[in-house]
Design goal:
The chain has about 180 residues and is mainly alpha-helical. It has two domains: about 10-45, no CATH class; about 60-175, 3-Layer(aba) Sandwich (Rossmann fold). It contains eight helices and five strands, in the order αααβαβααβαββα. The chain has helices at about 10-30, 35-45, 60-65, 80-90, 100-105, 110-120, 135-145, 170-175; strands at about 75, 95-100, 130, 150, 165. The strands form two sheets. Strands 3-4-5 form a three-stranded parallel sheet, covered by helices on one side. The protein is globular, with a radius of gyration of 18 Å.
């Protein structure tokens, strides 16, 4: 059996997890595996801040929310590179808390990552709004932990869903309503 690593093992397990993931993808495509050289190139690309960009509505919305005194946090199913990526993209300063699944050892939709974030914000879950783009991991996970939740539906896949916004720019208006 292949060593799939530990998705939530931080830097200790991530490499094996991603190598296993990429090898499973490659096997499905053509039966092959990813060479060490290709894995190194893909890993470097993934970790390079120049490979990433924030959506156009992010910076303005963060600035608006910060001007209102809203405490902001990140709750993400991501690897341990996320804090440095947020720093490189000049987004980290907007967030008082960054909770990353690989570092926390748990991830969405499990309640622990949401509850730890609330505790670090020094707020009860019932006073926290989580906005995310997954019905199960974000919306359902946050609700299951006792938080308010909105679905960020950028592609309009859930037009009939009541608790949704189409862009982060809609968030300040939602909070006003």
């Amino acid at each position: 059996m292949e060593n799939r690593g530990d998705r939530y093992g931080g830097v200790r397990g991530e490499s094996a997890f991603w190598r296993g993931f990429l090898n499973r993808v490659r096997r499905h495509l053509d039966g092959g595996t990813v060479s060490p050289e290709v894995f190194a190139r893909l890993s470097a690309y993934f970790r390079d801040p120049n490979s990433w960009a924030a959506f156009g509505d992010v910076r303005g919305t963060l600035a608006e929310l910060e001007s209102r005194g809203v405490l902001l946090a990140v709750v993400s199913n991501w690897d341990s590179n996320l804090p440095s990526l947020l720093e490189a993209l000049r987004l980290a300063a907007s967030f008082g808390v960054v909770s990353v699944s690989s570092i926390e050892g748990t991830g969405k939709p499990e309640p622990d990552i949401f509850l730890r974030t609330c505790a670090r914000l020094d707020l009860p879950p019932a006073e926290v709004l989580h906005v995310g783009d997954s019905l199960v991991e974000d919306y359902g996970g946050a609700r299951g932990a006792g938080l308010w939740s909105l679905l960020l539906d950028r592609e309009g896949r859930h037009a009939d869903f009541l608790d949704r916004i189409e862009t982060l720019a809609d968030l300040p208006g939602f909070l006003d309503a």
